[in-house]
């Protein structure tokens, strides 16, 4: 599988294009970089659009998601695609992506992408796991206060003309215990904010993590559930976390406690949660994510939680702040550009992580070869044999599962030799993608 044909000649203007931030280096870009096409879906931020446009690519930005048939047609000739949480890049879709080399998930999760199949096609996947941490943490804090004061129900009543002033079961959050399931970047931010408001914090995580402030780690999920007045979930979707909070776990929570889910919709058994709310075992819940979410805005939402008392339902907006979307846009679009232009795969979620510094400007015939191949013995030996007649300035390689990645900067005797090198590496049986950067 190959993504570019080689018609190699370094333009004069390109020879003088240097990276002002790295003395004695020059910027890299693919051969025929002006034909690189990028498709951005679901209204990805202007910051991301500007970065990929400034890289010199052809960019199409669409404000919504696409149906599977539309996506299959659109993805055929693009080299990079940017998505958010509603677009599903399945094996069926990716099989039609004839030129695709990288995917940007402008969000935290990547479960909407078939990561293993993408890697098998030499397609790297990048996301932004931390950029919206503060936005999600602030939403949860707001929901804790709203639930403890029943503000959702009171606001709805007032909008319907009902005055219902009351203090029964309305409490301050100071002195209450917050239980955090998943003590990662969101969980730790939430922990600090909650303590500053006078809450006690306990948490559980499957990984050993350093506690912040006065928070305390618990040995089991059950300990957190039984101790907490508020339980908030911040875990990824895996086979182990699906229905992680179901009837058994809800019954382990304090009577009158509150549950908040701003992680993934499959983590909570929604019918069990609805039953606990209607029975009064739980005093309230806030849910931002759902097992099935509408593909577009409008009157498409259905859930057993509709009509339950003291429930805050929001349409997956935990990270939907201008600040978060801008940061996500910058992080993921820069990762896409770096992979296309320099071959850098650092922080890819499904791919070996490799990087080389920019090429020295002292010799204009120095080029970069990047190669993705099946991880079997003997391939690196074949590549190095092909490159042996030339000066290999530096190289790096790594593997992840069945996929291996190789990068090398080489100095040619003349630029026409690149066609022969490209053809020989591409013809290796285990080759997936070979690219030339200059």
From TrEMBL:
Domain D-isomer specific 2-hydroxyacid dehydrogenase NAD-binding: 142-318
Residues covered by the D-isomer specific 2-hydroxyacid dehydrogenase catalytic domain: 38-350
Origin superkingdom: Eukaryota
Sorted UniProt keywords: NAD, Oxidoreductase
Keyword Oxidoreductase included in the entry's annotation: yes
Any GO BP: L-serine biosynthetic process
Family annotation (Pfam families): 2-Hacid_dh (PF00389), 2-Hacid_dh_C (PF02826)
InterPro entries given in the database record: ACT-like_dom_sf (IPR045865), D-iso_2-hydroxyacid_DH_PdxB (IPR050418), D-isomer_2_OHA_DH_cat_dom (IPR006139), D-isomer_DH_CS (IPR029753), D-isomer_DH_CS1 (IPR029752), D-isomer_DH_NAD-bd (IPR006140), NAD(P)-bd_dom_sf (IPR036291)
The protein's annotated pathway: Amino-acid biosynthesis
PANTHER family in UniProt: D-ISOMER SPECIFIC 2-HYDROXYACID DEHYDROGENASE CATALYTIC DOMAIN-CONTAINING PROTEIN-RELATED (PTHR43761:SF1), D-ISOMER SPECIFIC 2-HYDROXYACID DEHYDROGENASE FAMILY PROTEIN (AFU_ORTHOLOGUE AFUA_1G13630) (PTHR43761)
Protein family per UniProt: Belongs to the D-isomer specific 2-hydroxyacid dehydrogenase family.
Name recorded for this polypeptide: Phosphoglycerate dehydrogenase
Species assigned in the record: Furculomyces boomerangus
């Amino acid at each position: 599988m190959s993504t570019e044909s080689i018609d190699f000649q370094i333009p004069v203007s390109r020879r003088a294009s240097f990276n002002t931030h790295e003395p004695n280096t020059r910027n890299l870009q693919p051969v025929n970089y002006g034909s690189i096409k990028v498709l951005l879906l679901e209204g990805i931020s202007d910051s991301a659009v500007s970065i990929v446009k400034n890289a010199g690519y052809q960019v199409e930005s669409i404000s919504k998601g696409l149906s599977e048939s539309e996506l299959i047609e659109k993805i055929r000739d693009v080299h990079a695609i940017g998505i958010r949480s509603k677009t599903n890049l399945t094996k069926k879709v990716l099989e039609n992506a004839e030129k695709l080399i990288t995917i940007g998930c402008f969000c935290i999760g990547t479960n909407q992408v078939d990561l293993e199949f993408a890697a098998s096609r030499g397609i790297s996947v990048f996301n932004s796991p931390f950029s919206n941490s503060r936005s999600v943490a602030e939403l949860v804090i707001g929901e804790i206060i709203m639930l403890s004061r029943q503000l959702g129900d009171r606001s709805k009543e007032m909008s319907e003309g009902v005055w219902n002033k009351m203090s029964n079961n309305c409490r301050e959050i100071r002195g209450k215990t917050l239980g955090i399931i998943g003590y990662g970047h969101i969980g730790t931010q939430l922990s600090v904010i909650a303590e500053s408001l006078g809450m006690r914090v306990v948490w559980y995580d499957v990984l050993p993590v350093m506690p912040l402030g006065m928070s305390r780690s618990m040995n089991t999920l059950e300990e957190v559930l039984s101790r907490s007045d508020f339980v908030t979930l911040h875990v990824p979707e895996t086979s182990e976390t699906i229905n992680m909070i179901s009837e058994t776990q809800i019954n382990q929570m304090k009577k009158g406690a509150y549950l908040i889910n701003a992680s993934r919709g499959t983590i909570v058994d929604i019918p069990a949660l609805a039953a606990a709310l209607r029975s009064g075992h739980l005093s309230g819940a806030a849910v931002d994510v759902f097992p099935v979410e509408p593909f577009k805005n409008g009157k498409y939402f259905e859930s057993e939680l509709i009509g339950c008392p003291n429930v805050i339902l929001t349409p997956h907006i935990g990270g939907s702040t201008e600040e978060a979307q801008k940061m996500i846009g910058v992080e993921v679009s820069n990762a896409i550009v770096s992979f296309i232009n320099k071959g850098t795969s650092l922080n890819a979620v499904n791919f070996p992580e490799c990087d080389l510094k920019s090429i020295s400007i002292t010799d204009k015939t120095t080029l970069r070869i990047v190669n993705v191949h099946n991880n079997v013995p003997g391939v690196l030996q074949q590549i190095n044999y092909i490159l042996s007649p030339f000066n290999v300035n530096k190289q790096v390689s790594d593997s992840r599962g069945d996929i291996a990645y190789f990068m090398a900067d080489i100095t040619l005797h003349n630029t026409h030799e690149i066609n022969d090198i490209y053809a020989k590496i591409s013809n290796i049986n285990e080759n997936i993608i070979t690219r030339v950067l200059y």
